[in-house]
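From: lab user (bench 3)
To: helpdesk
Subject: output format question, protein + adenosine-5'-triphosphate

Hello, I'm new to running complex predictions and I'm not sure whether the block I got back is the full result or only part of it. Here's what I submitted:
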Amino acid sequence: MSDENAQRILVIDDEYIVRKSLCDSLEDLGYDVLDADDGKSGLEIALKEQPDLILTDLRMPSIGGIEFLKQAKLLSIEAPIVVVSGAGLMTDVIEALRLGAFDYLSKPIRDPSLLEATISRALQQVRLKRENENYQLHLEDLVEQRTAALHITNRELEWHKNNLEGIVIRRTEELENLITELRDTHSQLIESAKMASLGRLVAGVSHELNTPLGICLTFISSLGDKIKNFEKDFYLGQLSKKDFGKFLESAQESSDIVISNLTQASDLVKNFKMVSVDVSSEKEREFNLIDYVKKILLSLKSELYGARVEFIFDDSVDFTITSYPGYFSQIFTNLIFNSLIHGFSADTSNLIKIEILINQSVVNIVYQDNGQGMSAEVKQQMYEPFFTTSRKRGGSGLGMNIIYNLVVGNLSGSIVCESEQHKGTQFRIKFPKEALNKSHTPLGAQRSL
Ligand SMILES: Nc1ncnc2c1ncn2[C@@H]1O[C@H](COP(=O)(O)OP(=O)(O)OP(=O)(O)O)[C@@H](O)[C@H]1O
Ligand SMILES: [Mg+2]
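Helpdesk reply: Thanks, we reran it on our side. This is the complete output you should expect:
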């Protein structure tokens, strides 16, 4: 009971003997005891010494127990007050309890254990009350601490938010700049890829022009020689009728051959002019898709040497479409060069099949080669820009990306590829007959850099 030793009890009683015996009993129980002989001095001591418990008599001169209780309440004396009533009336006891007395004991107290139990209960209540007050106080502190911590966290959050906004704005700007740069690079690459396919066309056409022009040159030079001999024989008077006839025949033949070859060369140049203008200008116009593909094939005739091309279409159908012919030059040139470079080898019988059909308002193109085909891995990456399996041979890896972007982005169509290793490659391209996206840009495409 070491903590109870520190607890103080105030005993108020006007009868000295009673007060003394009560004080002695309490001291014996180990309490620190204060005493007063009436309510008035009891109040003074209670206010000054703040006892833990007060025992008071009811009937006393000046301020009695009832008045003491009233005053104690007014003065906010918190110690529990136990009334020790002598022969007082029960009504006094009831009034005392009503005024907030903790308990009452009858005087004289014959059973000390009753006193001990009552005091112990009262002090227990004091302890509980203090603990509760401490807890409340602690709780308030805790709430204050947590509130302060919350304020700090809020400020930190606010700071992070502002900081984050700054970071997001900066990163967005950086990303926007990067995207603009990439777009510019992409357009430049598209331009250079277009020029590359034009270059291939130029190489093909010049090779193709060489043959008829060479023939013309041979025949014209030989005709020149023949004219010189003819002239010499004529002036020497050695020209027979037979020689004259032979000369005319030979001149006629040369003229026919030269005309035919020049016509062929002129057609080639006309085709090439049209295709190359389409490749570089991207103007929308009405044209016949079949005739146009034929022109492309003719322009690539020398490249296609050694490969058989089957071109399948329905003669009775009108294939006039309104679109961008340049797209088709690029699509077919890239597809054909891919078959030639990646699919075919010199010792196989190489075949390209192109089938075009118009189904209501949809154009379907099936392009197929019987070449090497692709592994699943290559097929999966084929449309990615810069993906190539022939970097060493100068492949840029942009051909299929350009095709994809033209078909999906510019023609609002779709492209599906079927390919397996050693089993050839097939592309199925579909797009609406009328160009949908008239105000297109080549960057309207789906797969970009
Ligand atoms: N018909 C095909 N047969 C086999 N492989 C093909 C065929 N078409 C495309 N490929 C594969 O797809 C890859 C990507 O083709 P893409 O046309 O994009 O690039 P590239 O032909 O390598 O280079 P570039 O066309 O830019 O000169 C090729 O490297 C090749 O491996
Ligand atoms: Mg290619």
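A quick orientation on your result: Residues 84 and 105 are 5 Å apart (CA to CA). Let us know if anything else is unclear.
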